[in-house]
Design brief:
Strand order of the largest sheet: 1-7-6-2-5-3-4
Radius of gyration: 16 Å
Shape: globular
Number of strands: 7
Order of helices and strands: HEEHEHHEHEHEEHH
Helix content: 40-55%
Number of helices: 8
Length: 205
């Protein structure tokens, strides 16, 4: 049922979302998107980001980490996000159930989307990243694809989206269980890459 709902939703909403965002997609390296499981990391403006990237990566089953507060904001929202395959995370709890669900999704060959800032940025200032994405990529052994999108969502205004080359964190770190210092270094690497993609978007704006 979830599969039918997901594709029906894409069919009904896909073109509407594309017309609203009018994404201007630029690939850092065309043809570089890996097949199989991928971890997408992106900057975060608001809840619309998920819809934007779901439209950009239209033919992939895109799972997304969603905060518990929004996930449970209403019965309708809970149903919609659950049917879309969103994964609930409680940022104020030590419960690791979400981590195991993310690992399971990647092991099944799905695409996982994480906003490592863990909060919105309405003015374009990028906050520090949490370490979850880097740790997931290492433990699942999957490539990370950095994505930058613009912050100015308006009707009839094109939204820049820059998709970076895949990052193999395993090549940067010899273990799946890095020290806190090593994990912070890898997380900074991911954030720096998205900042570079932002510069590319601004060059072509």
């Amino acid at each position: 049922m979830k599969t039918v709902f997901r594709w029906l939703n894409k069919f009904l909403l896909g073109w509407t979302v594309l017309l609203y965002f009018l994404p201007r997609v630029r690939w850092e390296e065309k043809g570089s998107m890996p097949k199989g499981p991928v971890l997408l990391v992106s900057n975060h403006k608001n809840h619309m980001d998920f819809l934007l990237l779901m439209a950009v990566f239209y033919f992939r089953y895109l799972r997304c980490l969603v905060g518990k507060t929004f996930y449970e904001s209403s019965g309708a929202m809970h149903f919609l996000l659950r049917m879309l395959g969103a994964i609930k995370v409680d940022r104020f709890s030590f419960d690791m159930e979400f981590f195991y669900e993310c690992m399971d999704a990647l092991q099944k060959g799905q695409t996982l989307l994480i906003f490592p800032e863990g909060k919105f940025s309405v003015d374009g200032t990028m906050s520090e990243f949490h370490d979850t994405a880097a740790l997931l990529a290492l433990q699942a052994g999957v490539p990370v694809v950095p994505v930058y999108h613009g912050y100015d969502y308006k009707f009839f205004h094109r939204t820049p989206v820059v998709i970076g080359k895949p990052i193999d964190l395993a090549a940067e770190c010899p273990t799946q269980n890095p020290s806190p210092e090593e994990l912070r270094r890898l997380t900074k690497l991911l954030r720096d890459r998205i900042i570079e993609l932002r510069a590319m978007a601004e060059e072509t704006a």
